[in-house]
Each structure stands twice: as structure tokens, then as C-alpha cells.
Here is the input.
Amino acid sequence: MNKNLKLTALEKSWILYDVGNSAFILLVATLVPIYFNSLASAAGVHEDLYLSYWGYAGSLATVLVALLGPVCGALADRKMKKTFFLLTLLLGAAGCAALGFAPGWLSFLGVFVIARVGYSASLVFYDSMLPEITADARMDKVSSLGYAFGYIGSVIPFIVCLILVLMPQVFGLTQGSAMVIAFLITALWWIGCSLPLLRRYRQTAFVTAENSRLLDSFRQLGRTLKDVKREKHIFIYLLSFFFFIDGVYTIIDMATAYGAALGLDTTGLLLALLLTQFVAFPFSILFGRLSAKYDTGLLIKVSIVCYTGIVVFAVFLVSQWQFWLLAVLVGMFQGGIQALSRSYLGKIIPPERSGEFFGLMDVFGKGASFMGLTLVALVSQLTAGIQLNVFGLTLKNENIAVSSLILLFAIGFVLFCKADKLNRERVAK
Here is the structure.
């Protein structure tokens, strides 16, 4: 199939789900941490603990998803992918809508964990559809467009939500009621963008078995783990993914919380992260086009190196303009590394078992996110009140905590180079 052919209706429907779920993630990366901070402050929680509690909640969500990921993947490959996709996206959307009705900061974190689990679990089924909805030659392009339009499309409901939250008095609303409406708008947008994929997708690749009970799915998962051990190029790739995506997810999840903890202007933080979406849109498309000219593995390596530089810059972040520059830099590489990582795996696995392998990918990805969030939260808590003077700059404990991500990117880079080499040798044979 020619890479330059127009997108099919099924490909467009698949991309549209990225537009829907990305609205939730944008809200989580911007307004949700700030709203949580206001709830926690009202309850008398010390501001030094804000970043820690938020990190621990994110960690709990990722642990739950990591445990569910392989099971979801195994069930998906039993001709149940569409059913479980629907159930998990409804769980996520319902959790999103319910966030506005949480009475306190602790219950808010509980509802957030439920919503995040639903969102992340739905991606196991969604990502595993990729080898079915397009050809290998178009996988980089379609995956990149998913992230690209996800970034730009999510801006539409977010701008509406931002106007409501920043100017509630104009609409005769309180701050609290504005947030309730914002969560409802995001949930409805998420569900609405899912409908075309639910209507058009038909599972064509699946594993046949005498029964499809849960127990048999676990047996299938065991076989998958054995296969991964035998296929060194897949195993080492997933291991590398575990490390380098750690930094990516942690930066996404804690960007607003990090800026707020540093005492930066809230409105400025929100607008800067909105800028990230606009920057990420063209650069995600650019990476998809670059993949037609350059090796996908090379592009992933470049992205990891650049992200390492971004983390180094973030360590020394102390002012608002630096956060804006950081937002631009993250936007340049965020969509590219996520999209190419997804399509890279899709190319090196058998399509009829995509659910299993993407389930494992989710385990490695969410496991990494757990490690990153927990590490940053723990270091932030342990170094509370500590300040360092480096090159004439006063670094707070939050700055120190972020520096831990550098090592993870470095390990991820080394392992990916090994995995890519093994894959090249496999293809050459």
C-alpha cells in the first residue's frame, strides 16, 4: 500500500479516538492538579506535600493499570477487543465526569485514580487495533497523525473549559460549578469522539481457542511472556521503553504540579501547556513524514537524546519564561517519541497477537510511569525545605527531584540501541 494514499474512514475513526481521550489528558496535565491543590489547601494540607500526594495518586493508578494491562491484552485477542474497549472508555469518562462532585481532596484523588485506570486500560485495546486498521507501511504515519490531531483536537474543549474556569463570574458561576461543567464537557467530548471507531471497527486478527474464559487468557499471557523472552529484540525494546518513556510520562503528568510547586503563576502555566499542544501538532506530523525518509529507530534515538536535554534544562527551571520555553521543547518531541514507539512495536510483533504485546507494552510503560512518579514524589518529600545554590541559581527540592529522570533516559537510550541492532540483524536474516 502506498504511504501517500489518503486516510481511510477506519483510519480517521481510529485517529479521532486520540482526539477524544487527549482532552482528558490535557485536563489532567493542567486544570486537575491546580484544582486538587486548591482542595488540599482548603483542607489544611501543607504545600510542600502537594507534589508528593499528587505523585502517589498517579503512581497508584499506573500500578493498577500495569497489573490489568496483560489481562486486557489477552482478553482483547479473544475477539473481545471492542467490548472491553467500550467498557474501559466508559469507566474513564464516567470517572472524569465524577471528579467535579468529589467533596474533598482525598475523595478527589480516589475518583481520579478510577478515571485514570479507565483511560489507560482503554489505550491497551485502542493501541492493539493499529495493526488491524492500517498496513505496516502506513503505521508510522497513522500513529503520528493520531497523536498530532489528539494534541490539536483536545484544545477545542480545553479552551472552553479554560474560559469557564478563569472567568466563572462572567457566566454567573462559582469556581466549583465551573470545574463541574469542565469535567462534564471533557467526558462528553471523549465519548463523542469514540463513536465513529465503535461503529466502524471490526476485529479481524485474533487468537482462536476452544474457550475464551479468563483462565485461558492467563494461560495465553504466560505463553506470551515466554515468547517475549525468546524474542530478544522485543524483550529488550520493551525494557528500553520502560526507561525512556518513564521520563516522558512523568513530565506530562507532573508539569503543572511542578510549576505550581515552584510558585509560578497558575494562568501562565495553563497557557504555556496550551502552547505545548499547538507545538506538538505540527511536530507530530513532521515525525510521521520523517519516518518515510529516515529509519524509525534513528528518530527514536534522537528523541531520547533531546528529552535528556529537556530534563537537564528543567532541573534549572526557576522562572516563568523558562517554563514557557520548556513547554515548547516538550511539544517538539512529545508526540514524535510516543507515536514512533507505538508504531515501532507494531512492526516487530505478529498482528494476530497485537493485544497481548501491546498489553505488555502498557505494563512496561505504566510501570515506568509508576517508577518516575514515585521517585519524583519521594525525592521531593525527602528533600522538603532543602535548597541548593548551583551556578548562582537557588534550586528548590522540586528541582532536585526532577534530576532523577536523567539517568532513566540514559539507560533507555543504551537499551534501545541494543534492541534496534538485534531487530536489524533479525530482518537481515
